[in-house]
TrEMBL record:
Compositional bias of kind Polar residues: 10-20
All residue ranges annotated as the Helicase C-terminal domain in the record: 336-494
Biased amino acid composition, Acidic residues: 54-64
Location of the motif Q motif: 97-125
GO MF term set: ATP binding; hydrolase activity; RNA binding; RNA helicase activity
EC number: 3.6.4.13
Domain DEAD-box RNA helicase Q span(s) in chain numbering: 97-125
UniProt KW keywords: ATP-binding, Helicase, Hydrolase, Nucleotide-binding, RNA-binding
All copies of domain Helicase ATP-binding, residue ranges: 132-308
Taxonomic lineage of the native organism: Eukaryota, Rhodophyta, Florideophyceae, Rhodymeniophycidae, Gracilariales
Protein source organism: Gracilariopsis chorda
Identification of the protein by name: RNA helicase
Enzyme class: hydrolase
Pfam families attached to this UniProt entry: DEAD, Helicase_C
Length: 494
């Protein structure tokens, strides 16, 4: 019987987004082998009687309030619970109270201190002992963790801990669904690896300036960076063109794994890439959500894996207050949206729409009305423009970003305190609710224990039914507000 462990989200710095538009995704023939994994037993996580240590040299006693601020962990977020299922229930397992317990190198510990991480978040405390082997046997892992809980730092530390800096070849590969997430994770690698000799390369569509640079080693024409982060299509292209030698890869990380192993998305490419890696490569899959069918496919990619899971009813983010407004008709959505930006004082916000065409149309309409907004989508938008838009939004130069599902996953912008679902997330036919994408969208706010709001628009029976399906899926009520004034009053009370 598994012991449920409450999860506290760590207020970590930005670390790394939703699959890009369908036009961004290349496909190959489906492939992959089934793995016969032995039955798993749920493993109780032992509690430690040892007091938690702080890495700071000061021995001054901290008040509870000071400790919360100092540690970066929000003890108020006590709703999410995780379960650990070990592939081999006889293997000893522990949850780390401090980073010092993990046996990381001095250089990595300096990187952790430099990032001002004081002690692990729950996903870090639970996953890192499974990722970092003390006996030389590196186990696969399928991990589920809340958005904004510090999972990126978990797998980045896992990759950095496997690098042999005496050799200059690629030893770790991280697959992600979008270029924005790839760039973000590369930045986390370089930040946590600041005091190591790590090198990292991106395998994404190059900008015009990047195409002029020589990314490959001049002596061999092959990428030689220790870690490669990229999208499946571009990574597969590099493998085929022999620009990427996979023979020395020790660890494969798949972020946003539910999308990356879904055979209707990028799953076929991900499996083909896995087949080009050494048989003994360690596979780590991380995501906030896993459909049941996708979880089965994940076991093909990571056979005999330890698993970390979260109960569905605890997934809906408690730090995000969720509201909906019935605008009466589709056209009236724009009027309500304009009132929101005229009457409410928001930090940065993201507006989600269903298609690129709708993103263009709404952006132009808001700009014509005097609003300053930026727009980002996949498809025919150039890499240079995508990078410029997200970089300006991160820097706070722009405060309102209109986007499609391309930005619903992984991207961390801590100043975002509001998400508006101008179009509710649905399947590709626009008929049924897409609960996973909804969770990822609203997870762009309320990051790392901060408060945020999600505002949903409904206007007819179809959209009301979609919202009802989302409520039923997560067993969580979305609060109805009659108008923007009531919304403003509720937000002021938060």
């Amino acid at each position: 019987m598994a012991t449920e462990v409450k999860e506290s989200d760590s207020s970590l710095p930005p670390t790394a987004q939703q699959p890009s538009d369908p036009e961004d995704t290349l496909t190959d023939d489906p492939s992959g082998e089934k793995a016969n994994a032995p039955p798993r037993k749920e493993k109780e996580i032992p509690s430690s009687s040892k007091p938690e240590e702080d890495w700071a040299e000061s021995t001054d006693e901290l008040t509870t309030e000071d400790e919360q601020l100092f540690s970066g962990i929000d003890p108020g977020d006590e709703t999410s619970r995780i379960q650990v299922l070990q592939a081999d229930p006889t293997t000893p397992y522990y949850s780390a109270n401090t980073f010092e317990e993990l046996g990381l190198s001095e250089e990595l510990m300096k990187g952790i201190y430099h990032m001002k991480f004081s002690k692990p978040s729950k996903i870090q405390a639970t996953s890192l002992p499974m990722i970092i082997s003390s006996d030389g046997e590196y186990k696969n892992l399928i991990a589920q963790a809340h958005n904004g809980s510090g999972k990126s730092a978990s797998f980045v530390l896992g990759m950095l801990s496997r690098i042999n800096y005496d050799t200059q070849n690629t030893q770790a590969l991280c697959l992600v669904p979008t270029r924005e997430l790839a760039r973000q994770i590369r930045d986390v690698i370089m930040a946590l690896g600041k005091f190591t000799q790590v090198t990292a390369a991106l395998a994404i569509k190059a900008t015009e300036e990047e195409r002029k640079q020589n990314w490959a080693s001049p002596s061999t024409g092959v990428m030689s960076e220790h870690i490669v982060v990229g999208t499946p299509g571009k990574v597969m292209e590099f493998i085929k063109k022999r620009k990427f030698d996979t023979s020395s890869v020790k660890i494969l990380v798949v972020d946003e794994a539910d999308e990356m192993v879904d055979m209707q998305g990028m799953g076929d490419q991900t499996i083909r890439i896995r087949r080009n890696l050494p048989k003994n490569v360690q596979v780590l899959l991380f995501s906030a959500t896993y459909k049941d069918a996708v979880r089965k496919l994940a076991t093909r990619l990571a056979p005999n894996a330890n698993q970390i899971t979260i109960k569905r009813e605890t997934l809906s983010l408690d730090k995000v207050q969720q509201y909906y407004i019935d605008t009466g008709n589709k056209e009236e959505r724009y009027t309500v949206l304009s009132e929101i930006y005229e009457l409410l004082t928001l930090g940065q916000s993201i507006i989600f729409v269903r298609t690129r065409h709708e993103a263009h149309a709404l952006t132009q309409r808001l700009r014509n009305s005097g609003h300053t907004v930026s727009v980002l989508y996949g498809g025919d938008m150039s890499p240079e423009e995508r990078d410029r838009v997200i970089d300006e939004f991160r820097a706070g130069i722009t405060r309102v970003l209109i986007t499609t599902n391309v930005l619903s996953r992984g991207v961390d912008v801590l100043a975002v305190n509001a998400v508006i679902n101008y179009d509710l997330p649905t399947d590709k036919f626009g008929r049924n609710a897409d609960p996973e994408t909804y969770l990822h969208r609203i997870g762009r706010t309320g990051r790392f224990g901060r408060k945020g709001i999600a505002i949903n628009f409904v206007y007819d029976d179809r959209t009301k039914n979609i919202l009802k399906d989302l409520e039923d899926y997560y067993s969580r009520q979305v609060i109805k507000v009659t108008d923007v004034e009531e919304l403003s009053e509720r937000i002021e009370k938060l």
